[in-house]
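ingest -> validate -> predict -> emit
validate: passed (alphabet ok, no gaps, 409 aa)
predict: started
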Amino acid sequence: MNAKKSNWLKNLGPGILFAGAAIGVSHLVQSTRAGADFGFGLIWALVLIHIVKYPFFQFGPRYATATGESLLDGYKKLGKGVLLAYFILNLATMFTIQAAVTVVTAGLAANLFGITTNPLYWSIIITLICFTLLVTGRYSLLDKLMKLIVITLTLSTTIALIIAAFNSTNTYSFVQIIPEGAVEIGFLIAFLGWMPAPLDVSIWQSLWALEKQKDKTTEFNTKQAIFDFNIGFMSTLVIGIFFVALGAIVMYNSGETFSDGAVQFSKQLMTLYTKSLGPEMYIFIAAAAFTTMFSTTITTLDASPRAMTKAFELLSHKTYKNMYWFWISFLSIGTISILIFFKSEMGFLVKTATILSFLTAPFYAIVNYILISSKHTPEEWRPSLQLKMLSWFGILFLIGFSIWYLYTI
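emit:
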């Protein structure tokens, strides 16, 4: 029995990496702010966007394990223009995304560890640590590290929420709210953009699934891959609700205005939590916050170079020995450069990155659906009618919300 449990845990991989990548800015910053500004009023948006994006994320590990190739290989089969479009979109967004997650992590590190309160210095330190871990340990280290981080995050967040609920004497409304006005709608789109993650993470999922299949000590077929993904995906939903609840219980109607600076924001976050929960809970909140963001930072720093390496090799019809090194170095340098240029303005970087992710989501949704439904996918693993209908709804929703946002700005 213990052996079966051990094998079950060992077989988990890409789904946990998905959770590690997803549970970050969308949860700690955006979900907490949603709770602080709207109480429990945006739970509908959190649940709905998980339903909408679910099939397109799931198609990543489904396609990879059913065909033995990544979504990027599939994109090329649909036409070189599709793969080139991805390459350009990712090149245009990956630096801003990495800068956004790194600066949030840096702000938390500055408050947790001290040493310096300069978010730029902490951003450089964190980037170098992640870079070193990835180029020395690569996937196997990331796989093991993420399981520990996600378990730590889940436990610390759950404990914090339980204590907050017991200590609170306020009453809360669960009436759902549809934001009005350009600022509120802008926040909603940013909230949806990275909840639970940008849709291009489906490509990372397909690459991670292929890496997992290289481990001959585990059985990672398509059925196992979908099960693995579902666990990671459901954890992002549950923890997302937890963070909204924490924001609503601890911060709603507090009168505080969040700073756009990374260090100031994280200090406000810690102060508001400890003021309500007591100073003895600081270590739990700090552990939940920092592990959340560190997991996102290291997974994004790994995944974008993997994806760009694969896309470049497919476009050039060549294999390059040190291409991963080039892209991870390029991304690290570009990230620090953006943080220097924008003086580590967390609010601007987060808003820009999340909105860009939402506006590019229809592209990934449409292409992933076309690929998984095409002749390039074995017939037994093409989506069922129910999954197709959910996909159609999701595509219309993402296009409709994007048009609504562009119309209101």
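Residues 1-6 have pLDDT under 50 and may be disordered.
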